[in-house]
Specification:
Layout: E1 5-9, H1 13-26, E2 31-35, H2 38-47, E3 53-58, H3 67-76, E4 85-89, H4 94-103, E5 107-110, H5 115-129
Parallel strand pairs: 1-2, 1-3, 3-4, 4-5
Helix pairs in contact: 1-5
């Protein structure tokens, strides 16, 4: 297996920039690949060798297929079913959290509007899910 990457499925350029800033802050050395919707994300997953993505950061509100429906697709996929999925969404509805966890999400985090809080949350996510590839 070659270098691993992180797949970020989010249609907001601002959120992608925040993810990249938090990855840098956390010392993440993996590449970050982004997809603006579920269709592009599935194509990226299918084009990549198994194990290329260390984990996926997934937003709920996506154009077209929403994040929850996409997570169901991923969990039924014969190759991608075991990919760790961390949901990062603006939804504060407890039903959404329960639905994602029941669908097989590995973690659920709420995006905050305050940049420092968002960076702190993302930094913690990277430290937890990036494993030994995080620089000391």
């Amino acid at each position: 297996m070659g270098e691993q990457a992180i797949l970020v499925v989010d249609d907001s350029d601002d959120d992608i920039e925040t993810v990249c800033a938090a990855a840098s802050r956390a010392g993440v050395t993996m590449a970050i690949t982004s997809a603006p919707d579920a269709d592009v994300a599935l194509r990226l997953l299918d084009a990549a060798a198994d194990g290329v993505f260390a984990f996926m950061l997934l937003d709920f509100n996506l154009p077209g297929v929403d994040g929850l429906t996409f997570l169901h697709q991923v969990r039924r996929h014969p190759v991608h079913a075991r990919l760790p999925v961390v949901v990062l969404t603006a939804s504060v509805n407890p039903r959404d959290r329960l639905a994602f966890l029941a669908a097989g999400a590995d973690a659920f985090h709420i995006k905050t509007v305050r940049l420092e809080e968002c960076l702190d949350t993302l930094t913690a996510i990277f430290k937890r899910w990036s494993g030994p590839t995080v620089a000391p």
